[in-house]
Design a protein that fits this description.
ATP_synth_b, transmembrane, signal, mainly alpha
C-alpha cells in the first residue's frame, strides 16, 4: 500500500511542477492519506505492542504491590501475635520467679525459726547443765565447808 501511495505521489509531483507551496491540488489529500496511513501503521506496529507491554507491566506492578502488602499485613499480624506471646511468657516467668522467691523466703524463715529453736534449746540445755554443775559444786562446797568447819572446830577445841 505504501509503495502504491508513493508511486501516486511521484506521478502527481512530476505532472504538476508549477504553483508553489500552497497549491491546492491532489498533493494535499495525498499527504492527508499518507499521514492517516502512517498513523494506522504506527498504531498497529508500534503503539499497540508498546501499550500492551506497559499494561502488562502495570498489572505486574499492581500484583506485586498487592502481594507485598498482603505479606506485610501477615508479617505485622505475626509480629503482634509473637509480641503478645512474649508478653504472656514474661508475665508467667515473673509469676514463677515471684512464687519461687516467696517459697524460698518461707523456707528460709522456717530454717531460721528452726535454727533459733535449736539455739534456744542449746542455750536452755547449757543453762540447765550449768545450774546442775552449780548445784553440784555448791553441794560439794557445802560438804567441804562442813568438813573444814568440823576440822576447825576440833582444832579449836583441842587447843
Amino acid at each position: 500500500m505504501h509503495s502504491l501511495l508513493l508511486s501516486l505521489f511521484v506521478q502527481l509531483s512530476e505532472s504538476e511542477t508549477k504553483g508553489g507551496l500552497f497549491d491546492f491540488n491532489a498533493t494535499l489529500p495525498l499527504m492527508a492519506l499518507q499521514f492517516l496511513a502512517l498513523t494506522v501503521l504506527l498504531n498497529i506496529v508500534f503503539y499497540k505492542p508498546v501499550s500492551n507491554i506497559l499494561d502488562e507491566r502495570d498489572e505486574y506492578i499492581r500484583n506485586s504491590l498487592t502481594m507485598a502488602s498482603s505479606a506485610l499485613l501477615k508479617a505485622n499480624q505475626l509480629t503482634q501475635e509473637y509480641e503478645y506471646e512474649l508478653a504472656e511468657s514474661k508475665k508467667k516467668a515473673q509469676e514463677i520467679i515471684k512464687n519461687s522467691q516467696k517459697d524460698a523466703q518461707i523456707l528460709v524463715s522456717e530454717k531460721i525459726q528452726e535454727a533459733q529453736k535449736n539455739a534456744e534449746k542449746l542455750l536452755a540445755d547449757a543453762y540447765n547443765d550449768l545450774n546442775q554443775q552449780k548445784e553440784l559444786a555448791l553441794k560439794t562446797l557445802e560438804s567441804q565447808v562442813d568438813i573444814l568447819t568440823e576440822k576447825i572446830k576440833l582444832k579449836l577445841l583441842d587447843i
